[in-house]
Amino acid sequence: MFVISTENFSVWKKKQILKGGDNKSLSLLIDLLGGLSTKELSLLKIKSEKNLRLKLDLDSLEYFWDKHLSTFTPIQYLSGFSYWRDLKLEVSNKVLIPRPETELIIEIVSEIFKNKEEQITYVDLGTGSGAIGIALALSNPRWNGVATDIDKNAIEIASRNFANNSNQSNLKFYCGNWWDPLFNFKGEIDLAIANPPYIPQDNYEGLPIEVKNFEPKNALLGGEEGLDHINEIVKYAHLYLKDNGWLLIENHFDQGDRVKQLFFENRFTSVKVLKDFSGIGRFTIGRYQEIIS
User: Fold this and answer.
1) Is the model's pTM score more than 0.85?
2) Do 36 and 158 fall within a single domain?
């Protein structure tokens, strides 16, 4: 630990902001690398503490801040961690940085399955850092969760994140493409969730530098129209979902109507496109129904 006077820290912080960037990003860096949370930072303005403790000295923090400003490397990748809901998750350039809008998935699922005593089996397809699967496992200890990802590095990161955030055992991890590792779960899944690559080719070329240059392309690019992976997930969902099982997919801001139609074409009912914090149709949800002859 490094002991820094509050006065010196305040002068240093103002100096960093004058270089560029924004307060939110600098506060995140101070939190993830320096060990001083945003809440503690705000309390400094109220309390008259003379000294504070940091995990890194100011020169080291400045080095990382300069690197962020000069290369546009996300703070999360510089530190190796990201916050999502109430989780602190390990991340690397092998997985996407979990987004705030994706947090709504947990709220949507809670609205569908209000009976917390109900035992269900759910799958988090393309788990990445494990954010969705882990949050559901922690919120619902009676549920049995399965998480898949095509990248073994992502599976290793997600497994560590579950172990570091919980002592539970109700979430298992499998490496493979979408449904492929789930042969033993055919017809047994109550809920499937996917936040797949859905960025169209033309949109991908115009992504911000901090996204395009650092986050894994295979977790972002969804083909020419952005629907390649969504098509595959919806097409084969009937093999794995129970009758009346739910499928929830996060999609691009302008894909809601097309994804909704895709659900209808594959025997889903109660199909809705739900909005995110910005009022954008971000999530498509539906309930699979078997054809009774």
Assistant:
1) yes
2) no
Per DSSP, 3 falls in state: E
Whole-number CA gyration radius for the chain: 21
* Domain at 114, CATH number: 3.40.50.150
pLDDT at 283: 95
Range of the domain at 31: 2-71
Residue 82 to residue 267: CA distance in whole angstroms: 38
Burial category of 26 from C-beta neighbours within 10 Å (exposed 0-12, middle 13-18, buried 19 and up)? buried
Q: How many CB atoms lie within 10 A of CB 228?
A: 16
- 230 falls within a domain: yes
Pair 152, 206: CB distance under 8 Å:
no
Q: What share of the chain is helix, strand, coil (3-state, %, to 5)?
A: 45, 25, 35
Interatomic CA distance for residues 2 and 30, integer angstroms:
13
Angle at which helices 256-265 and 228-236 cross, to 10°: 30
What average pLDDT values come out for the chain (293 residues) when binned by 10 residues? 85 91 91 87 64 89 95 95 94 93 92 85 96 95 95 96 93 96 94 95 90 91 92 96 95 92 94 90 91 56
At residue 46, the pLDDT reads 46
For residue 166, count other CB atoms closer than 10 A to its CB.
15
Angle at Cα 252 formed by Cα 131 and Cα 94, nearest 5°?
40
Interstrand relation of 87-90 and 81-84 (parallel, antiparallel or unpaired): antiparallel
Angle at 78 between CA 77 and CA 83, to 5 degrees: 55
Structure tokens at 218: 């295979």
